[in-house]
Design a protein that fits this description.
The protein is of the alpha+beta class. The chain is about 50% helix and about 15% strand. It is built from 25 helices and 23 strands. The strands form 4 sheets. Strands 16, 17, 18, 19, 20, 21, 22 and 23 form an 8-stranded antiparallel β-sheet that branches. A 7-stranded mixed β-sheet has the order 1-8-9-10-11-14-15. The chain is extended, with a radius of gyration of 39 Å. Mean pLDDT is about 70; it is low at about 1-50, about 280-350, about 350-355, about 570-680 and about 750-755. It binds ligand L3IBWBLD. Ligand L3IBWBLD binds next to loops. It catalyses: S-sulfanylglutathione + O2 + H2O = sulfite + glutathione + 2 H(+). It comes from Cirrhinus molitorella. One of its GO terms (biological process) is glutathione metabolic process.
Length: about 900
């Protein structure tokens, strides 16, 4: 099985397969796993490969009327997303997560003019995701596509057909069975993309559609990038018959297209620049493979592997990574994540080393700086565009919440004023009732007064009437009292809990208002935060760019100085016929032989004879050697330069040995004191000492970690031994025989797996909590870390990949899904990123590298994946130790110790 295939299958592989492919990234260039070119003859095979249709979803973004398409292999779960939109990235990711898919590639049919693509944001959120777009689009992306390329997901693939016309970089993606084609804006349902901007050409479009789309089988379903009328799908046959533009002759078509008179897309001015960057490449990561990645995308694909392998040693040794890079490399210097103080310090040291470089190295470094600046600019611009997108989405959310709040408040106001009106009406009625009662009382009193003065025969009748009046009065008084009590009740608020006319209680509305108000406040805060971040980002962008500009300026200056300084040297050597031995103070630097520098520096004055003379001489004379206390270190520091002793043969300088003898402190002394051209500056010597001290510290730290690991290993072995003893004891108990046989099997399989080098996390019966407890952690006593047999959850503060802000995230280490995922909140609704176990290489304490930026330097640790470094901060020392021991179970390395 080829390495490429293995890597592609990784997410679904069994433990055994994983054994074969435990270091896939070292084998494969990033894009090669998903795309390969094929000869035209290979077409014959398409259609035969697929068994069963891929999973397919059509998703819609209503603001720009854009369709996003999700395709996946139902077996391997590998997925691709076509034309994602910035605003709907979270929706798409939620669906992908719900369907248990692994998003591999985000494709664009072209550089859109009406909306910002979601590719950039997706790449930030989905670890390892690759972006792809046409190589003719002018946009940056991990994969630059052209005619005939294939994007593979599981057993399916999409074939690329170039369909220019709407833009130069328009692509149509066709499924391997030619049952579906994703036409982008080349062909819309009963229409087509406009041709009046972005290199649009009606002639090209007409040809593209007729040759590349109408040549597909008639039943082939066509899925466009937009529809403005609610249509979702068409077929080749339908469009051939009914497309009002493309059924016409070429001339008629051109005429139609040139007279569409459509208004410009509203967002064209921000979308196009953002999209030219948004499919951008991998995140830069200084400690891993920033430079190779950058090279990958810029170089022909067949070169990728060679370039990467050149960098492998650098990646495998985190302790010496920063000093190990040769001055000419751009790894550490391109650190967009490192703290500014750190990079500043580094820059100064770098500048010192630059002083000792040859002009050609300086030139190379300057070119690299230019490249870095360009890349950084693109990255930062993208970051700004993404932040703007996020800000806009948040502002939109805030607007919606504010509207909702206003509606609720209006409703509340209405309800209150209705209530007030009805209270007043009731009060008036009560007053009327009161007057009525008083009037009735008065009447009764008058009657009572009249009765004694009435004749005997009428008195009886009057008394009867009086009694009747009194009865009515009594009833009226009762009604009045009831009414009065009811009003008092209403006024004291007892009624509030009762249902209102529209079925909603006042308290419910008030609660709702409070809730929405709360959401509004949170949204407002977030908007404020984003605005600040945006400002900071802009500042950071200017700072980073100006720092690179400054570095370049300094280098240019130094390069001129060096050229000037080298001139007298070469002149001198021409006169004496020998080159002087010059003292160097850098452990990293071995000066190039004189003829090399002459060759490199075209500006140096040279005489024909002088040049010949120098090349006749042995190479050793100008070699500068500075012995470090540890020779191995010295070698490690300058791995790509030839060893100095190879050059030491000239009589002027008696080689390494004599140099060592001549200077007890390890510095080479000049062979001829009069020929010393440059003495080490005290600052550089201090830097050197500092560098050596750091190396020693790093070594000691490594020793300590190894010991710690051994100790852990010992505890683990002890635990295992105890388990075995226990299982033997239990064996004797016949009633529990079955259970324990199973347990033994489990222990056995764990041992077997460990022996075979399978990461612990892959063993089926692995109990994460038991394992962590066996390492001596008090899991129950560690607040904020929720550890079970298969999962570990808790808040960690994570440093952003490009924007170096530290954010609290909810992390889930999940054995069943074989991934470390992080979310905005513990409700696990908003997935922010995923690190698959197979990508994790190492977990280690940060050793205060982020001391100046981390919110808690002493609680900061690193998770190193093959592509980048994640800096994480725990809330307590115990939590940090637990998290490190949890995550390390996902590494291959863990199984070996
Ligand atoms: N009103 C929309 C833009 C509408 C538009 O121009 N659509 C483009 C595709 S997106 S660049 C198009 O080609 N339309 C062809 C047609 O016939 O409608 C906005 O403001 O975003």
């Amino acid at each position: 099985m080829s390495a490429a295939l293995l890597y592609r299958l990784k997410p679904a592989v069994s433990a055994a397969t994983r054994l074969w492919s435990c270091k896939p990234p070292q084998i494969l260039p990033t894009s090669a796993a998903f795309i390969h070119r094929r000869p035209a003859s290979a077409r014959l095979y398409s259609g035969l490969m697929a068994t069963g249709a891929p999973l397919f979803r059509q998703l819609f973004e209503s603001e720009s009327s854009t369709y996003t398409y999700l395709l996946a292999d139902t077996d391997t779960k590998e997925a691709v997303l076509i034309d994602p939109v910035l605003e709907t990235v979270d929706r798409d990711l939620k669906l992908i997560d719900e369907l248990g898919l692994t998003l591999k590639v985000a494709l664009n049919t072209h550089c859109h003019a009406d909306h910002i693509t979601g590719t950039g944001l997706l790449k930030k959120k989905v670890f390892g995701l690759k972006s792809a777009i046409s190589k003719h689009s002018g946009a940056t992306a991990d994969i630059q596509l052209s005619e005939g390329d294939r994007i593979t997901f599981g057993k399916h693939f999409l074939t690329v057909r170039e369909t220019p016309g709407h833009t130069d970089g328009c692509l149509t993606y066709v499924t391997n069975d030619e049952r579906m084609a994703f036409t982008g804006d080349a062909l819309l349902i009963r229409g087509c993309g406009r041709t009046d901007f972005q290199q649009g050409s009606p002639h090209k479009l007409y040809e593209s559609v007729h040759k590349k789309i109408f040549s597909l089988p008639g039943h082939c379903f066509l899925y466009p990038a937009h529809d403005y009328k609610g249509q979702t799908v068409s077929t080749v046959d339908e469009e051939k018959k009914f497309n009002p533009r493309l059924t016409k002759t070429l001339d008629e078509f051109v005429n139609i297209m040139n007279n569409l008179n459509l208004p410009k897309p509203k967002k064209i001015d921000i979308s196009v620049p953002a999209n030219l960057l948004s499919c951008q490449r991998e995140e830069c990561c200084p400690e891993t493979s920033c430079t190779p990645k950058t090279l990958h995308t810029d170089m022909p694909r067949h070169n990728m592997e060679t370039q990467r392998s050149q960098w492998e040693p650098v990646r495998s040794s985190p302790w010496i990574m920063r000093v190990e890079q040769s001055p000419a490399s751009s790894g550490a210097e391109s650190d967009t994540e490192g703290s500014s103080t750190e990079s500043e310090r580094h820059r100064v040291k770098q500048a010192d080393r630059d002083l000792l470089m040859s002009p050609s190295m300086l030139q190379q470094r300057i070119t690299e700086l230019d490249q870095q600046r360009e890349e950084l600019k693109i990255e930062l611009q993208l970051e700004v565009a993404l932040l703007r997108g996020e800000l806009k989405a948040e502002q939109e959310r805030l607007r919606r919440h504010t509207d909702q709040l206003q509606v609720l408040q209006e409703k509340d106001r209405q309800r209150r004023s209705n209530r007030l009106a009805s209270r007043q009406k009731e009060r008036v009625q009560l007053e009327q009732q009161r007057l009525k009662v008083e009037e009735m009382k008065r009447r009764c009193e008058e009657m009572e007064k009249q009765i004694p003065s009435q004749p005997e025969d009428q008195r009886e009748q009057l008394m009867l009437r009086l009694q009747q009046e009194k009865d009515v009065l009594e009833a009226t008084v009762r009604a009045f009292e009831d009414m009065e009590f009811h009003i008092l009740e209403l006024e004291s608020g007892v009624e509030d809990e009762r249902e209102g006319e529209d079925g909603e209680s006042q308290t419910v509305i008030e609660r709702e208002i409070t809730r929405v108000q709360h959401t509004c406040n949170a949204s407002q805060e977030r908007v404020q935060q984003l605005e600040n971040q945006l400002k900071e980002m802009e500042k950071e962008k200017d700072k980073a760019l100006s720092s690179l500009r400054q570095e370049k300026k300094e280098l240019l200056h130094k390069s001129q100085r060096i050229l000037k300084e080298k001139k007298p040297l070469s002149d001198w050597s021409n006169i004496t016929g020998s080159t002087p031995c010059v003292m160097s103070h850098s452990p990293l630097t071995i000066h190039k032989a004189a003829q090399e520098s002459l060759k490199d520096s075209s500006s140096l004055p040279r005489r024909r004879s002088a040049h010949r003379k120098i090349t006749d001489r042995p190479l050793s004379a100008q070699v500068l050697v500075r012995m470090t206390p540890d020779r191995q270190t010295s070698e490690a520091l300058s791995p790509r330069l030839p060893h100095p002793t190879h050059r030491l043969s000239n009589g002027h300088c008696n080689g390494l040995r004599s140099a060592e003898q001549s200077d007890g402190n390890g510095l080479h002394t000049p062979c001829n004191s009069t020929s010393t051209s440059r003495a080490p500056s005290p600052q550089s010597l201090l830097d050197l000492v500092e560098m050596e001290r750091k190396l020693r510290e790093a070594k000691a730290e490594r020793e300590r970690l190894l010991k710690e690991r051994e100790e852990r290993q010992r505890l683990l072995a002890e635990q295992r031994r105890r388990k075995e003893q226990e299982s033997v004891r239990i064996q004797t108990d016949a009633s529990k025989l079955e259970t324990h046989a199973e347990e033994r099997l489990q222990i056995h399989s764990t041992h077997k797996n460990i022996e075979q080098g399978v990461p612990l996390s892959l063993t089926v019966n692995f109990d994460l909590r038991a394992h962590v407890e066996s390492l001596g952690h008090n899991v129950a006593g560690c607040m904020g870390v929720n550890l079970s047999g298969r999962r570990c959850g808790g808040f960690l503060t994570k440093r952003g990949g490009r924007v170096k802000t530290w954010r609290r995230r909810w992390f889930i280490f999940d054995l069943d899904h074989q991934r470390l995922a992080y979310y905005t909140e513990l409700d696990e609704k908003k997935l922010k990123g995923v690190i698959y176990f197979q990508a994790i290489e190492e977990v280690y304490y940060d050793h205060l590298r982020t001391a100046t930026t981390s919110p808690r330097p002493s609680l900061t640790f690193c998770v190193k994946t093959y592509e980048r470094l994640f800096f994480l901060v725990a809330h307590s020392p115990e939590a940090m130790r637990i998290w490190m021991d949890v995550i390390v179970t996902a590494t291959d390395e863990h199984s070996r110790y």
